[in-house]
Write a structure and sequence with these properties.
- Two copies of one chain form a homodimer.
- The first copy, chain A, has a seven-stranded mixed sheet with strand order 6-7-5-4-8-9-10, sandwiched between helices. A two-stranded antiparallel sheet of chain A has the order 2-3.
- The first copy, chain A, contains ten helices and eleven strands.
- Chain A folds into two domains: about 1-80, Arc Repressor Mutant, subunit A; about 85-200, Rossmann fold (3-Layer(aba) Sandwich), CATH 3.40.50.720.
- Chain A is an alpha/beta fold.
- The longest helix of chain A has 19 residues, at about 10-30.
- At the A-B interface, strand 1, helix 2, helix 6, helix 7 and helix 10 of A face strand 1, helix 2, helix 6, helix 7 and helix 10 of B.
Amino acid sequence: MDTDKENKISITVIRRLPKYYRHLGELLRRGINRTSSQELSRLTGFTASQIRQDLNNFGGFGQQGYGYNVEELHSQLGKILGLDKIYNTVITGAGNLGQAIANYRGFAEAGFKLLSLFDKNPKVIGLKIGDIEIRDVDELEDFVRGNNVEIGIITTPREHAQDVADAYIKGGVKGIWNFAPADLKVDDNIIIENVHLNESLFTLSYFLTNKGDYVKS
Amino acid sequence: MDTDKENKISITVIRRLPKYYRHLGELLRRGINRTSSQELSRLTGFTASQIRQDLNNFGGFGQQGYGYNVEELHSQLGKILGLDKIYNTVITGAGNLGQAIANYRGFAEAGFKLLSLFDKNPKVIGLKIGDIEIRDVDELEDFVRGNNVEIGIITTPREHAQDVADAYIKGGVKGIWNFAPADLKVDDNIIIENVHLNESLFTLSYFLTNKGDYVKS
């Protein structure tokens, strides 16, 4: 049991990986092919020793005296994050937020294949966002089942979020990216990633109100 | 110096406050007027002792044997988060994401007053989102200065984000809510709160790819 636990990575480490990945991608775009934990520290705000420790969890890609090869590290982190795969996704809630995500550049680039949007508003059902048709939410569960949808995105108002999550899960979705300000009740084997915009905004509000009244740790 | 530091609250505590605030708001909506650290633990996923410790930082609102008065705690946390104030805000980037935020229910409710949207696309300048006019981004700095805008929101593509931030800051903005996948360079006295959608999506992807291969701490 203990050995098992020691081999696993903690969530706090995992949550730092996408930031490393993003900054490495920016270095690549700028044509920079070699970096160091010190430079990554400057870019990400984490300490250099923290970064070395984090990356060591995955076998350690750095070489003493050389640092990290940006392309290799970026590619390795991409595999660790599962970005070398294609995921079938759908969005429920075809309002502005749903459309924003449907049009989000980084989304398709990272292997997230949007198959359809769903809404319950008859005025938008049948319309297209780019090439993607908006379908009736009544068809959601069947569509998810029939098209091997792995990630369901929720951009509905709070009061519909749980119903949408239930339809996703019955249809066989494995992960939910939830933008509704609701805490979804799902089985432990379903992965939920929440984007709570209010919580982010309220954090900003706190810092504006209590300037300097906090420590960065 | 040390005493000073001890009186300050750590960022990790602060980031938990909006979650408490949101759950207390839901309890209020459901007509529940009394709660406990145990119930808040069930709702938020933090431990009861963690919650008691967090709330003690702000004077401690609970009473032994009674628990917390939901309305009072909600109101106190609202004040701590600065939500009893009105903030003037503008959005730059009037695409889907900017419009989604402009239409976001919780935004106005929490005291964030949207004065205008800005864009550089002549096709949308002059249009209205609800009552709010879309203006030319060339007017941004002057508008911010003339209307006491405290929070600037960025929903532009990455490549324009730094220019927008610079205009905001020259105009006198104190905080930036940034949705562009860019790391803004600003002076230390400017508060930046980032919403990096890609990082959230990549975390979901990690958990789907590495199911069970992590520990929750």
